[in-house]
Write a sequence for this structure.
């Protein structure tokens, strides 16, 4: 399941890590500000939720299926473990504003956009046959209804991750985390 170059941009792991990288750069650029603008904090939240999803998927699905050694080897160590854990910690400990329920819903937006693109790509271009399939995650192996259920489960999981980060961040703010 590996790709190189521009072709790797089809994977949510790569896209979520790029989003987190952008959010980290913007967050870092805003550090000198007495108070970071809310959109900066929100971008950090979206990035943290997105890469945290990749971590959770690896921990509960891909790791047991393919082995954690492979999931955390080479660049995968950074994209599946180190960056997601650092991003979650940064979001919880360094964001200065409490996120709302509405923010929790917005944090699901990157996954919703990716999922809509993934399903639309398969509907428009067809699933195809391996290794040139458009269903590189195999979600449509059992048909479109099963693929949609899997997508909805992932959206729900993303919402749950956003909720956990939001609640942990609120708790850190109450305790006066740095």
């Amino acid at each position: 399941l590996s790709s190189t170059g521009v072709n790797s941009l089809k994977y949510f792991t790569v896209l979520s890590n790029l989003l987190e990288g952008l959010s980290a750069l913007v967050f870092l650029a805003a550090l000198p500000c007495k108070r970071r603008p809310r959109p900066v904090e929100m971008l950090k939240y979206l990035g943290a939720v997105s890469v945290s999803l990749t971590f959770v998927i690896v921990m509960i699905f891909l790791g047991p299926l393919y082995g954690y050694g492979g999931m955390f080897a080479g660049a995968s160590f950074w994209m599946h473990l180190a960056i997601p854990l650092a991003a979650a910690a940064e979001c919880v400990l360094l964001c200065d504003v409490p996120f709302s329920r509405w923010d929790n819903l917005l944090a699901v937006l990157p996954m919703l956009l990716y999922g809509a693109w993934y399903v639309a790509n398969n509907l428009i271009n067809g699933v195809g046959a391996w290794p040139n399939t458009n269903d590189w995650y195999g979600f449509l192996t059992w048909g479109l209804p099963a693929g949609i259920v899997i997508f909805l489960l992932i959206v729900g999981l993303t919402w749950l991750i956003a909720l956990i980060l939001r609640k942990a961040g609120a708790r850190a703010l109450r305790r006066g985390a740095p």
The mean pLDDT is 91.
